[in-house]
Amino acid sequence: MMGLTIAIRKGSVDTMEINQTQVHLASMILAGVEARTDNRREAGPDGCIPGLWQTFMNAELSELAGVQPPQHTYVLYTDYESDVNGAYTVRIGHEWESESAAIKAGLTPSALPASKYIVFKATGGSVQQVVIEAWHYIWAWFESSSLVRTYTGDFERYDGAGFDPQHAVVEICIAIQ
């Protein structure tokens, strides 16, 4: 287990703190709304993730039978074509009690395997700004890190209760070898 807290001054966020730790997480079933995209598309005006968030909010998935309490919101990045530069599937949703419960609700589930993760916890401003800056930090961090990403499934986790989009706290979990 390692821990590190870094304060970053960048962009419109006065100070963003990133705390990172290594953990081993159990397997879980995630399901929700999804799209296929890549980071180049998401950096431009044709990015689909903002619209996917709107679809997720309108779907009210947390009210469906089979969602695991607490109703944390997850943004799963999976089915990577290659690495940070390739296409991937992004899914915004919740943890489900089983694949069959998600399928019964009309959703495509992803079985995220048990794995070792490095968790980056970012705080310090609006959710959009914190997430963008945290991902930029993570990509740069892995360029010089001895840890190796597995690209089996990475995710953002947001607390389901009391989430404040103007004062975001987000955990970004990256699967590592």
TrEMBL record:
Coiled-coil region(s): none
InterPro entries: AraC_E-bd, Cass2, Reg_factor_effector_dom_sf, YobU-like_regulator
Gene3D superfamilies associated with the record: Regulatory factor, effector binding domain (3.20.80.10)
Pfam families linked: Cass2
Residues annotated as domain AraC effector-binding: 18-177
Lineage top rank: taxon: Bacteria
Name of the protein in question: AraC effector-binding domain-containing protein
Organism expressing this protein natively: Paenibacillus plantiphilus
Lineage summary: Bacteria, Bacillati, Bacillota, Bacilli, Bacillales
